């Protein structure tokens, strides 16, 4: 039965491939592979959806093989199938009839090859039927093709750090050449994008010096780390000032004196319901 | 004993062919009826034959009995038939000057009992057969007498002329393993019947099977293997009758046992060493038809139990 076992293993792998493909296509639909590629571009995690789909496919195929346990008897011709089932279910009996049946089954099964069992596994497609092995192999190819086409169609929509890398490099070079103040014009003009695309520059005040904080397109996409030399900074300590509690005006005191009483009564009535 | 069984098993196809051939000398056609009665005998069950008058019910039973080396008795049922007329009675006899009681066995003490027109017997007399049919024993007074194996009751009834009849109660119907309908012969068969019975010589049959062989065949019947799938199918069919639309009362577990036994017997009769689905489906009708009680509405609409069984078989 080595041939049959190989056939079963092939079927198991085909089932796994079908289930894995279906799961991966569903993941593509939700953009999960793109998400992983974006955040873990150069890492094994980028392939996590594919790996996970494969594992789930294997588990699904295992479950499927247990659930639809192969019935070898069904692949025999009808009379031999009934005969073999009866013999198998009564294998504990040693009656005269059972012995005769067992000998007959043994004789007839010796003429049955493993290939006979396989060829009988067919999938009905309307008026036609195809061997289930070939049908499953075809399904796997179709699903792979669909997954490839679907992922290619999504490739243009993916956002990866690569398109923005040129901008960030440009920005860094500009910073080196012109200093911080001229950075907007150089970076923006080189990229052909206005520096005010994100609105007016924000203003921050630090030790009475106005600082313009401008966000440029591309500068926020992705990140890069640079190693810088460490330097010692001196921190000045200052005495903590004593806080003075300033009482706030009561609400009632902010009201016109002539209306205070009536408003007070209103709220009292409101509180008592 | 095992050697006997092996020999009988080897000879079984030839025995059955000979029996069928002998019966065929007297009974024209009716092959399925003959098969079903033989199934009943192999399964050790009782058979109820139903047909219009003149279709050879009594002749068929007498012929089958003649082919076997078994004791045969006939009870012609009438409304005034008393239970003691069937079971037997205790007589006072004078032996060597003193009076002693002696039990005189009735016609029930035979291997094959033909209860002709059983529905003409009174319910009291019909119920006298209950114990014999189920327990294979007869109790008269304080004494219980075992009936000799094998023991079959082959009863006949006709569905017309219902006046003066007592339809069999469900409890008694349930004791019949099979209910067999005999239909009219076709034109060719009728011609053959006419040819055969209008000459001088009437066909005669020979005894072709011994009591011992028959008992061995009954034992072999129970040994015929059946797959678990078919057992489950039989149980499903039986259980379905209890909740089927248009059925007032379904069949009892006795029907499950009967269905499996009859299927085994049919397999053996047809020279097979296993039970096939065809055996099960063929035997379902004669086994279940008299055990299903239809609702009034179903009967009003002309639904028959055979139609219900066919629908159930399609569903399993």
Structure notes:
Chain A is built from nine helices and four strands. By secondary structure, chain A is mostly helical. Among the domains of chain A are: 2-70 and 122-155, no CATH class; 162-213, no CATH class. Chain A has a two-stranded antiparallel ribbon. Chain A has a two-stranded antiparallel ribbon with strand order 3-4. In chain A, strand 3 (202-206) and strand 4 (209-213) form a beta hairpin. Chain A starts with a helix and ends with a helix. The mean pLDDT of chain B is 87. The longest helix of chain B has 25 residues, at 2-26. Chain B is globular and about 70 Å long. In chain B, helix 11 (277-288) runs antiparallel to helix 13. Chain B is α/β, with parallel strands linked by helices and 316 residues long. The interface between A and B is medium-sized, with 17 and 19 residues.
What is the fold's blueprint, element by element?
The complex is a heterodimer of chains A (273) and B (316).
Chain A: H1 2-29, H2 32-39, H3 48-67, H4 78-89, H5 96-109, H6 114-119, E1 122-125, E2 128-131, H7 132-155, H8 162-191, E3 202-206, E4 209-213, H9 260-272
Antiparallel strand pairs in A: 1-2, 3-4
Helix pairs in contact in A: 1-3, 1-7, 4-5
Chain B: H1 2-26, H2 31-43, E1 46-50, H3 57-67, E2 72-76, H4 83-87, E3 88-95, E4 98-105, E5 112-116, H5 123-135, E6 137-140, E7 143-146, E8 152-157, H6 170-173, E9 176-181, H7 187-197, H8 211-223, H9 228-243, E10 247-249, H10 253-269, H11 277-288, E11 293-294, H12 296-300, H13 305-315
Parallel strand pairs in B: 1-8, 1-9, 2-5, 5-8
Antiparallel strand pairs in B: 3-4, 6-7, 10-11
Helix pairs in contact in B: 1-3, 1-8, 2-10, 8-10, 9-10, 10-11, 11-13
């Amino acid at each position: 039965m080595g041939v049959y076992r190989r056939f079963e293993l092939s079927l198991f792998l085909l089932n796994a491939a079908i289930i894995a493909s279906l799961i991966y296509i569903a993941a593509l639909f939700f953009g999960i592979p793109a998400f992983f590629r974006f955040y873990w571009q150069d890492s094994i995690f980028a392939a996590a959806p594919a790996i996970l789909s494969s594992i789930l496919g294997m588990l699904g195929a295992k479950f499927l093989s247990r659930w639809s346990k192969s019935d070898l008897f069904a692949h025999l011709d009808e009379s031999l199938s009934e005969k073999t089932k009866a013999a198998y279910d009564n294998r504990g009996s040693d009656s005269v009839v059972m012995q005769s049946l067992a000998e007959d089954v043994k004789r007839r099964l010796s003429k049955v090859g493993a290939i006979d069992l396989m060829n009988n596994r067919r999938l009905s497609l309307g008026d036609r039927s195809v061997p289930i092995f070939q049908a499953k192999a075809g399904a796997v190819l179709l699903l792979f093709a669909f997954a490839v086409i679907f992922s290619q169609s999504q490739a243009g929509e993916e956002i990866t750090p690569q398109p923005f890398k040129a901008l960030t490099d440009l920005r860094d070079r500009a910073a080196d050449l012109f200093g911080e103040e001229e950075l907007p014009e150089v970076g923006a003009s080189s990229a052909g994008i206005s520096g005010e695309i994100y609105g007016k520059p924000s203003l921050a005040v630090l030790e009475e010096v106005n600082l313009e904080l401008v966000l440029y397109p591309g500068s926020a996409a992705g990140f890069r780390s640079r190693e810088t030399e460490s330097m010692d900074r001196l921190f000045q300590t200052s005495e903590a000032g004593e806080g003075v509690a300033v009482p706030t005006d009561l609400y009632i005191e902010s009201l016109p004196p002539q209306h205070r009483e009536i408003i007070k009564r209103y709220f009292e009535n409101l509180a008592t319901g | 004993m095992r050697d006997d069984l092996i020999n009988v098993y080897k000879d079984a196809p030839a025995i059955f062919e000979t029996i069928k051939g002998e019966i065929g000398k007297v009974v024209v056609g009716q092959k399925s009826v003959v098969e079903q009665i033989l199934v009943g005998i192999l399964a050790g069950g009782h058979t109820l034959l139903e047909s219009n008058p003149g279709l050879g019910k009594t002749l068929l039973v007498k012929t089958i009995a003649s082919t076997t080396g078994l004791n045969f008795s006939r009870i012609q049922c009438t409304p005034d038939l008393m239970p003691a007329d069937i079971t037997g009675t205790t007589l006072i006899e004078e032996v060597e000057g003193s009076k002693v009681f002696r039990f005189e066995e009735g016609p029930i003490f035979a291997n094959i009992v033909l209860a002709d027109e059983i529905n003409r017997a009174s319910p009291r007399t019909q119920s006298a057969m209950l114990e014999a049919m189920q327990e294979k024993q007869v109790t008269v007074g304080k004494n219980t007498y075992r009936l000799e194996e094998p023991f079959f009751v082959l009863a006949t009834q006709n569905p017309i002329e219902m006046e003066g009849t007592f339809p069999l109660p469900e409890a008694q119907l349930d004791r019949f393993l099979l209910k067999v309908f005999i239909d009219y012969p076709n034109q060719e068969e009728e011609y053959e019947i006419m040819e055969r019975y209008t000459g001088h010589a009437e066909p005669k049959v020979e005894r072709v099977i011994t009591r011992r062989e028959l008992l061995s065949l009954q034992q072999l019947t129970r040994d015929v293997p059946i797959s678990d799938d078919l057992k489950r199918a039989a149980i499903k069919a039986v259980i379905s009758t209890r909740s089927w639309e248009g059925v007032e009362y379904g069949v009892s577990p006795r029907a499950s046992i009967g269905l499996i036994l009859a299927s085994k017997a049919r397999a053996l009769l047809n020279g097979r060493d296993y039970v096939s689905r065809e055996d099960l489906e063929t035997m379902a009708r004669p086994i279940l038809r008299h055990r299903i009680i239809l609702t009034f509405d179903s009967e009003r609409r002309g639904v028959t139990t055979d139609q219900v069984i066919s629908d159930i078989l399609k569903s399993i």
